[in-house]
Amino acid sequence: MAVRGKEGSGVFSHDVRYVADCEHEVRLLLSEHGREAGHYHSLSDDPWQVLWNEDRTGLVMFLEHGRCLFVWRSPVAPAGRESGILELLQSYAAQRRRLVVAALVSETYCRLGIELGMRPVWIGHETFHSLPEWSSSG
């Protein structure tokens, strides 16, 4: 479903699809650029949608309900393409008149969001374990 609307004097388009309708493409992009375990939640039976960037080399996954776009984890994109996806997300949310709530995004995306005027809320810290160095002795 490509969503079209007017922004200023130009026409713009957002390429938004349900994951179920483009699962093969999503899996390919995740295999190449998926860095967070939570990215793979989009392959569940829930009605996840993806907003693709213009050349379909990046995406952001979200659930839409009521007046909210709920983004789980960071967008998936090659290095250097991150901010473009957040700008598309902001544009899409404004067109749909929805609030964006993004949970558990990376520090990189958090910084980019702040640069775009988004407000972060710290909800906790995710721990990372280096199993080769880990022991139960402390």
Characterization of the model:
With 138 residues, the chain is an alpha+beta fold. The chain has helices at 23-33, 82-96, 107-115, and strands at residues 2-7, 10-18, 49-52, 59-65, 68-72, 99-103. Strand 3 (49-52) and strand 4 form a beta hairpin. The protein is globular, with a radius of gyration of 16 Å.
Shape: globular
Quaternary form: single chain
Give the SSE order as H and E letters: EEHEEEHEH
Computed structural class: alpha+beta
The total beta strand count reads: 6
Which SSEs are present, and which pair or pack?
Elements: E1 2-7, E2 10-18, H1 23-33, E3 49-52, E4 59-65, E5 68-72, H2 82-96, E6 99-103, H3 107-115
Structural descriptors:
138 residues, alpha+beta, 6-stranded mixed beta sheet, 26% strand, globular, disordered N terminus
Sum this structure up briefly.
By secondary structure, the protein is an alpha+beta fold.
